[in-house]
Amino acid sequence: MSDRRDDNDPRELTGAYALDAVDTGEREAFERAAGRSENLQAEADELRETALLLALSADPVAPSERLKIDLMAKIASTPQEMPTRSESRPAESAPVDPQPQVAQSAEALPLAASSTPAELKASRRWFSGPIGLVAGVAAAAALFIGGGFVGGALSPDAPVVIDASATELAEITAASDSQRTTVELDGGTTATLVWSEELGRSAVVTDGLEPLPDDKVYEAWYIDSEGAVPAGTFTASGAGTAWHVLEGTMAAGATVGVTVEPAGGSETPTTDPVIVVESA
């Protein structure tokens, strides 16, 4: 009997498949094998569930604020795709970050007026397949929870939410219908809206957003033809990056706006929007 590993045996890919750490060819080979073996599929499902439980039970650690900011901005604004497998593997080259998509400035858009759709829209899945979706949430939750991410912003003084907000953002990003739209404002500030119509949830991630004085907050709004509905407040960190999972349910085609309001927020907007992003 030989105890050597057979690299061509799909069963050797069970753990990697459960964590979405396989390429396209390996994924297809494993799924063909799993389609013929209930035990193999059950083993992958158990490993996936274990990864999720381990992620959610991890003890919090305290990475640097810069790491948290960079990670959050990258996840929300960078579309992720599975690589295409090639029979001949070319020499590896340095990765190039995809450029964010740009739409018109929010400053020209009134809060309650109807506007044209954003010029460009990113509509991509973070991971492919149910296994990858849950594994993606597990991985994101492990990073967010382990990093002590805050619920409404990346401010060092904000309260820490161990799993609720981090898991919500991970689920939105990993949803099968997850979409992104990025707008660029004057001064180089960018705002990325990430949303899932299936979940009815959305989040805004900004880069270059100015910190506000203590008596002011940013407030998010769901905007339609009938007006604006408050969706929670947040602050920007000293590095100018902030993220916020909007409260309430997002309707299909909704517009998301952000205004500057007194601390504690407002029932209706009291200022013109500094950010407007359309999902339609």
Automatic annotation (TrEMBL):
<dbReference type="GO" id="GO:0006417">
    <property type="term" value="P:regulation of translation"/>
</dbReference>
<dbReference type="InterPro" id="IPR051474">
    <property type="entry name" value="Anti-sigma-K/W_factor"/>
</dbReference>
<keyword id="KW-1133">Transmembrane helix</keyword>
<feature type="region of interest" description="Disordered">
    <location>
        <begin position="78"/>
        <end position="109"/>
    </location>
</feature>
<dbReference type="GO" id="GO:0005886">
    <property type="term" value="C:plasma membrane"/>
</dbReference>
<keyword id="KW-0472">Membrane</keyword>
<keyword id="KW-0804">Transcription</keyword>
<keyword id="KW-0805">Transcription regulation</keyword>
<keyword id="KW-0812">Transmembrane</keyword>
<dbReference type="GO" id="GO:0016989">
    <property type="term" value="F:sigma factor antagonist activity"/>
</dbReference>
<feature type="transmembrane region" description="Helical">
    <location>
        <begin position="131"/>
        <end position="154"/>
    </location>
</feature>
<dbReference type="Pfam" id="PF10099">
    <property type="entry name" value="RskA_C"/>
</dbReference>
<dbReference type="InterPro" id="IPR018764">
    <property type="entry name" value="RskA_C"/>
</dbReference>
<protein>
    <recommendedName>
        <fullName>Regulator of SigK</fullName>
    </recommendedName>
</protein>
<keyword id="KW-1003">Cell membrane</keyword>
<dbReference type="InterPro" id="IPR041916">
    <property type="entry name" value="Anti_sigma_zinc_sf"/>
</dbReference>
<feature type="domain" description="Anti-sigma K factor RskA C-terminal">
    <location>
        <begin position="135"/>
        <end position="274"/>
    </location>
</feature>
